């Protein structure tokens, strides 16, 4: 299939191993995946090739996932998003229409939710 017709997911996590696992799994499931390792990298990636959905870790150095999603939604209101955190209490309330999953997340369940979001 032509990659340009695949749904595009931007994964943002400061841990390279996590980004790699998400990229591999989601690619196998038929998505086009970009990975960024910081909020700033994610903003650059978004501007270069806007995704259909963003999956972001909450706790990252510099810019946390909530701030990143606020900045991305300023560029594209209503952007579908998933936030993931190892410490859900730290996250607090999230933006509207952001699905939240605690770590470790089941990638199978995550894909089920992505299919309803896209």
From TrEMBL:
InterPro entries: Bact_response_regulator (IPR050595), CheY-like_superfamily (IPR011006), Sig_transdc_resp-reg_receiver (IPR001789). SUPFAM superfamilies: CheY-like (SSF52172). It comes from the Bacteria. SMART domains: REC. The keyword Phosphoprotein applies. Keywords: Phosphoprotein. Residues 8-118 form the Response regulatory domain. The modification 4-aspartylphosphate is found at residue 57. PROSITE patterns: RESPONSE_REGULATORY. Gene3D superfamilies: 3.40.50.2300. PANTHER family: RESPONSE REGULATORY DOMAIN-CONTAINING PROTEIN (PTHR44591:SF3), STRESS RESPONSE REGULATOR PROTEIN 1 (PTHR44591). This is Response regulator. It comes from Massilia norwichensis.
